[in-house]
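Dear Dr. V.,

Thank you for agreeing to look over these. As mentioned in my earlier message, I'm a first-year student in the group and I'm still getting used to reading structure tokens, so any feedback on how I've presented them would be very welcome. I ran two proteins. I've put each sequence directly above its structure. The first is here:
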Amino acid sequence: MLGPTDVAPGVARVAARTPTLPPATHTNSYALGTREVLLVEPATPDDDELAEWLAWARGLVSAGRTLVGLLATHHHVDHVGGLDVLARELGLALFVHADTAARVAFRGPVRTLDDGDVLTLEGPHRMTLRVLHTPGHAPGHLCLFDEASGTLVVGDMVASEGTILIAPASGGGDMAAYLCQLRRLGALDAATALPAHGDPIHGPRAHFERYVAHRLAREERVRQATRAAGDTLDALVRVAYGDTPAALHPIAKLSLEAHLEKLVAEGHVKRDGDVFFSAGSTGGK
């Protein structure tokens, strides 16, 4: 496990190995607060990493802090892999959106959060965290914004390196919602974004804008790929993701599906069974 490191006012980070997607190898967990502490991302399922994670959390208690809960930004395994062990060993409730609570097998106490809720953590650096429901990567995805310091915990909305997978079926992803929420996060004009993967992002507004621009550029490639005559996902991925190594095409196909679902909903693309084709063409193969 990497850390701990102070990364923002009243915020410390550790990073534990998780079964995540490359280029990431770890998931960041954050301790928010200077007396009352909310632990974000009970992520790792690895036994050795869990032992270190517990030692870190118990060290906070030994230093006179009070742990108030475990928050998972969403339900994916690299964010909740250690939930059962950590909640049991630390005696903490799970803080999540209702959509996440429905997707994790957790029998302990749950506090559900929704957009606009406020969490206050007392201490020398008092944190007032505004809860943001930011679906797109996952239906119940949450972000937390400390307006006083401009610190924004962003989970898997962005990463400091690489991009974020939007997987409709397996992950509950929704490309249209994701783009909407990226624009919303950018408009907050936060000072620092704290992602689940990678280092803090300072002045993140431009980072959010680059993410949106990247997705829209990919969407245009998808539209162009469907204009010829239409084709299946397996065929379209080779065209729309021709700049991506073939070994990554199985993952790229998930993002392709998310783009196509958005384009179908908007009327730009039609679907005939397993074939997708431009709404301006005569049909698929």
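The second protein is here, in the same arrangement:
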Amino acid sequence: MSIPQSGGGPIERHEQLAEYLADGCKPKEDWRIGTEHEKFGYCKDTLKPLPYEGTRSIQAVLEGLRDRFGWSPVLEGGHIIGLEKDGANVSLEPGGALELSGAPLEDPSDLRRGERPPPRGEGCGRPNRGWFHRVGGRTDLDP
């Protein structure tokens, strides 16, 4: 049994693949660059992942960013799951990570204007790189 094909059937020559990819490209004047920072928050005293709710939580970090920096909340079922401001957003990712996606910029030198990862909350930490819940496990994450 074969998988249904779309887009004109199987590619038989490398020129077909090159043409297909080229057709999906934006004109150079529409090119943009952006940044992404993804951080896993943790409780400094236990080194366990931040829960969603509580005084030291993902919810508290998102509400703090909203209140301190004027971000607009993104809600799902009445719960804050992200933020938006000036073309940038902060989103709650699987496993409790928070990701800052910077606004699309025309010039790479504009990246110096200060897109920064989310700040730490009271009693919360966020590693700078290469760390994933060394003490907590999958069962410590909020469902």
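From my reading of the second output: The radius of gyration is 20 Å. Helices lie at 14-23, 58-69. Does that match how you would interpret it?

Kind regards,
E.
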